[in-house]
Structures are given as C-alpha cells and as structure tokens.
Amino acid sequence: MSSPESSEANGESKPVGIAETEHVSVMPNEIVQWVREIHPTTIIDGTYGAGGHTRLLADVLASSDDTPAIQPRVIAIDRDPAVVRRDEQKPWIEDNPKIELFLGSYESAPKALDALELTHADALVLDLGLSSDQLADRHRGFTFTIDDAELDLRFDPENGVPAYRWLQQHSEKEIADAIYQFGEERFSRRIAKQIVLRAREKNPVTKVGDLVEICRRCVPRSRNHDIHPATRTFQALRIAVNDELGGLTRTLASAPDWIAPGGRVAIISFHSLEDRIVKNAFRDDPRWEVLTRKPLRPTDEEVEANPRSRSAKLRVATRVE
Ligand SMILES: C[S@@+](CC[C@H](N)C(=O)[O-])C[C@H]1O[C@@H](n2cnc3c(N)ncnc32)[C@H](O)[C@@H]1O
User: Fold this and answer.
1) How remote is the CA of residue 50 from the centroid of ligand 1, in Å?
2) Model confidence over 99-152: pLDDT tens digits?
3) Which atom of ligand 1 is nearest to the CA of 106?
C-alpha cells in the first residue's frame, strides 16, 4: 500500500497564501553527494519548486576553468507558472550565469537543452510531488482546508483541465478506477458513485469542500486517525489530472538519449507507484546501471526536522558508457 504523499495534505497545514521559502528540500546532502561525484557541467533540476536543490546543485558544478567550451549550468525546470514567475527575476537567478530557469514539464528537458545549444546533460534530478508553497496556496485545491477553493489540482493551471471538469468528463467506472489505482483508496467505488450522483442531480462537484464532504461520508475514519478521509482521493485526482505517472514513465524512457554516458539520474519519490516506475525503468533498460540497489531513505534527523521527508525514497542510476 502506498503511503499518501504528505501529512500536510491532510488538512492540517496552515493556509498562509503563496509562500516564498517555506519549502524545505528533501535529502539535500544525498542529492549533492551523488551528483558531485561525477564533476558535472550540465545538471537538469526537473522539479525546481522552491529552488533549494537548484541552489545546492549550482555549487557542485565543475568550474568554468575546467570546461572552457561549456558554461557550467543548472537547467531548472518547473511546470507551475506561479513558481517560475515568482523567481525568474530574483537576482540569484536573473544575474546568475550558472542557473537557467524554464517553465514547462521536465518531459521537455531536451527542448531546454536545445535552447542552450546543448545535446546532453550530465545529471538529472527529480524531486516529485508538490512543494509546501503550492500546498499553502489557497486557490489551487491542493489543501483541503479551504472548502470554497475551486477543485483544480493542476500544477499548470494554464493548460489541461481542472479536476472538477475532469470528473465531469469521465464515467463513474473511470473515476473509481483512478481513485483506486492512483490513491489506493479502498472506498473508491462509493466515492465515484456519489460524485456522479451529484452531477446527475445538477449539483456537480466543483469546490474542494464538495469532494471533502463526499469523502467524509464514504471513507470510515481510520482507526488511528492518521490520515484525513480525503487524502487518498485528492492525491489520486492530482496524479490523474497532471498525468504524473505518464510524464515520469516517458521521461525515464527518453532520458538515456540525452543523459551523457557516465551521467547520473537521481529521483526522489513519495509514493509507491512512482517508486515502482523508477525502479522498473532503471532495471529494464540496459543503458542504466543501478547505483542504489534499495532506495535510500532520509535519516532520522532529517525526518524529525522535516516530517514531509518521511516517505521519501531516492534511487540513483548511471548512464552506462
Ligand atoms: C517537491 S517540489 C520540488 C522542490 C525542490 N526540489 C526544492 O528543493 O525546492 C516539486 C515541484 O515539481 C514541480 N513539478 C511537478 N511535476 C512536474 C513536471 N512534470 N515537470 C516540471 N515540474 C514539475 C511542481 O510544480 C513543484 O514545484
């Protein structure tokens, strides 16, 4: 059974509006260590978020004296326009030749390389899921404390369809299957039935509170009250609306074409479906050599300091020569 991604998504987080630096990077020392070892010139941070990993990775770049032909750079990518707009004019990005920030999915990493007249990167880092800053944004639907927020759940609200419309466009069975598959929610059928019933009664689910209320009615409180009854359903819808597993699968399939031989891919995931995709992709493609036989976990000290890290798993592979 996958663990739901974040205890903060269970409605306990403070609704504080879009934050600047609330997000604490997960497994920063491990990421730095695995990437530093290969003396990289070009690193792709495919999930920029609050920029924590990007800043650390900028410090592990090879010096430009060692590689006069190539400007050492971290290519930072995020799919969320609010994240990129918030930071693109910050001096430490705008005036820093070592960091290039792009708006888009990490799937489009080859396009970002192309824009910089590069063909390969030495490293790719992905830290999947959503940042604490996004969770704190009252208008996205990520946190379910804000009943009247629109049920959107997109990383990129300028593309695709919001979750409430996704629900209107799919059948009861498709909704139930998504909630079961991506959220591993045992009561998926009951929830899907109630969602479709509301739509039939001309009172469709459009707000966060509508879906929370359905989940409360359909999911018995777990015995130890560890997670909110809506956690798994919201996680599932977010994964479906953003095609998160599809994007990860396609990126791992294409990455051997644009990661340089000897280069490394380091991926932090937060639930078992993502981790399985990473594990299988590394195992099944002979162009990868797995460097972490078992996923690495954050230290007890890190989990204590940053509870969001507790379900993180890090896998690393190298592109064989
Ligand atoms: C957990 S946060 C990353 C935090 C970051 N590593 C740090 O240290 O601050 C995940 C970020 O990935 C972004 N994201 C999710 N899916 C993405 C995708 N397919 N392509 C690019 N960015 C994505 C989200 O918008 C979010 O900002």
Assistant:
1) 8
2) 999 999 999 999 999 999 999 999 999 999 899 888 888 788 898 888 899 999
3) 20
